[in-house]
Amino acid sequence: MTFSDTSVAALANEHFVAAWINRGEGFHNEDYSSEEWIFKEHYEAYPTRNICTFFMTPDLRVFHYVAGYASPAVFAAEIETAITLRRQAFDDDLVLKPLGMDRFRRLHGDAAAAVASRPRDERPAPRYRGFTHVHSAACARAAQDGDRYLKELHQWWAQAKELPDFQAVRFDYLYGNSFSEESRATTRLKGRCIVHPD
């Protein structure tokens, strides 16, 4: 849903190389009933372990991620955070600069404070696959849950001692709901992630 917004897709593609990985062999979903429910009822954010977007270095070190669904505006803000992290903490090859980890932690701390003070302005009702979102009390609760999650996530990163390896994080990332499509049969990612430099 988020990447159907052309401005979000363009922002991601301008600064990163996007790749999709199915977490279990053969998983394919053409049932849009869950998407319809999320879009109609939880437009701003729906944190869940069911899907996760990772921002990584070419050697598969994770420097940011966002679990679940976020609306285009919320997700674009997280992409901007990842872009700032790249520019200030890493060199052109996405290797940490001298004092890069200190900058990394400070930037995530700043992002936590920014999430906490983000204004909730009224936006036009967006559409997706013929569905129209209508802001509601459920939407407001989901937005608060999403903001709480993003604040806690940035605070967690602000305490990081090093960048974790993707394999160490992909099955155990921050957001603790009770379900996931991970399975014991899920295979490990092989190879390198190529990142397009600015």
Please, could you describe this protein's structure?
With 198 residues, the chain is mainly α. It has one domain (2-17, 31-169). 40% of the residues lie in helices and 10% in strands. The strands form 3 sheets. A two-stranded antiparallel sheet has the order 1-4. A two-stranded antiparallel sheet has the order 2-3. A two-stranded antiparallel ribbon has the order 5-6. Strand 2 (52-56) and strand 3 form a beta hairpin. The protein is globular and about 50 Å long.
Biggest β-sheet description: 2 strands, antiparallel
Shape: globular
Low-confidence stretches: 191-198
Distance from N terminus to C terminus (CA atoms, Å) equals 26 Å
Helix content: 40-55%
What does the radius of gyration come to?
17 Å
The number of helical runs is 6
Strand order of the largest sheet: 1-4
Please describe the structure with a list of short key phrases separated by commas or semicolons.
two-stranded antiparallel sheet, mainly alpha, about 200 residues, about 40% helix
Write the layout of secondary structure elements.
Elements lengths: L5 H10 L17 H9 L3 E2 L5 E5 L5 E6 L1 E2 L1 H18 L10 H17 L10 E2 L2 E2 L4 H22 L7 H4 L29
Antiparallel strand pairs: 1-4, 2-3, 5-6
Helix pairs in contact: 1-3, 3-4, 4-5
Question: In a few lines, what is going on in this structure?
Answer:
By secondary structure, the protein is mostly helical. The protein has helices at residues 6-15, 33-41, 72-89, 100-116, 137-158, 166-169; strands at residues 45-46, 52-56, 62-67, 69-70, 127-128, 131-132.
